[in-house]
Amino acid sequence: MQGAADGGRRHTGRARYRRPALILGCVVACLVGCTSGAAAAGKILGLNAANAANAANAKRTATSPRRSSGAGHQPPSPADRKATTSPTPSAAPAGSSPHATAAPSHQAPPPGVSRTVTGPQLPRQVGALFDSSGLSGSHHCTASVVNSPGEDLIVTAAHCLGSTSDVFVPAYHDGVAPYGVWHLQRIVVDAAWTDDSSPDDDVAFAVVAPLDGRTIQSVVGGYTLGVGEGTGGRVTLTGYPATSQDPVTCTNHISSFSSTQNEIYCTGMTGGTSGSPWVTGDSPGTVMGVIGGYEQGGDTADVSYSVAFGQSVQNLYQEATSSDN
C-alpha cells in the first residue's frame, strides 16, 4: 500500500508559459486536477485505514494461542495446544530453503507452505488419533507407525495420549478408514512427562493391538526411528488439523530452537497436528521428531517444534518394544 499512497501524492512538473492566456488556462486546469487528486487521495487514505483495521483484526486472531478439538474452542481430550488459525504467507521467510519442494501436484508449493493431501497421495504410515468414539467422534492428534520387532508401534506426542481408549486410523480421509480402526494396548511415556509434563519429554509410543490377525506395520508399513539426526536437514511434516477431514503436508529445513528442541517453519499446522511425524530421507523415510515439545508444539500455526530425538527417546523405544516377540 505504500506505493499506492506515494502515487496519490506524486505531482508532475510542468514548464511555465509567459502568455497570460496560457497562464490562466493552466491555473484553471490545475484547480480542477487538484480537486480530483484530493478526492482520489481521500479514497486511498480511506482504503488504507480500512485495510489497516482488517489487518489488525486478522493479526489478533492469528496470534491468539488456543486449544482446539474441531468444535469451537473447546479443548480435545487430551488437550492439543497447537494454534487453530493460520495466516498463509505467499513465501517462506528469509533463511528458508530456496528450492521448491517436490510434490505429486502439477506445481510444488514454496518451502514452508502446506498443502492438502488427498487420496493416493496420503502416506499410509500416518494417521489420525480419535477418542473411544472412533470415526463417529473427532480426531484430536496425529501419529505414525515406526518399525519395531513386534510390528505394532506408533509414535506421537505425549500430550496426545491420555488413555488406551484412543484409536488410530492410518491414512484417514473424508470420514473413511481405508486400513481400518486400530485400538491401543499400551502407552509408554517418560517418567519426566508423567511427573511434570516436561516439554523435553513430549514424546510417546503406543503398542497397537492386531486387527483381523494382522499387525499395523504389516498392513501400512512403518518409518525407521531416527535418533541423533541433528538439525539443519530437510523434513516433511504430515498432520491432521482437527477442523479438516484431510491432512496437510509441508517440507522445509529445520533449525535448532534449543539444545533439546528443533523448530520448523510450516504454515497451517493447526490444532490436531500435534504428534505429526518429522520425516527425512527416502521413502518411506526416517521419523526424527514429532510436533510437540515447546508450548506442546507451538502457539502459532506457522512455526512448530519437536523434541530432538536422542538417547531418552531411544530408551523409551526400547521400553515400548521390550515385550515384543
Automatic annotation (TrEMBL):
UniProt-listed SUPFAM superfamilies: Trypsin-like serine proteases
Name listed for the protein in its UniProt record: Trypsin-like serine protease
Disordered, as annotated region: 58-120
E.C. number: 3.4.21.-
Pfam families in alphabetical order: Trypsin_2
Bias type Low complexity, positions: 84-106
InterPro entries: Peptidase_S1_PA, Peptidase_S1_PA_chymotrypsin, TRYPSIN_HIS
Keywords recorded for this protein, A-Z: Hydrolase, Signal
Signal peptide, first to last residue: 1-40
Classification lineage: Bacteria, Bacillati, Actinomycetota, Actinomycetes, Kitasatosporales
Molecular functions per Gene Ontology: hydrolase activity
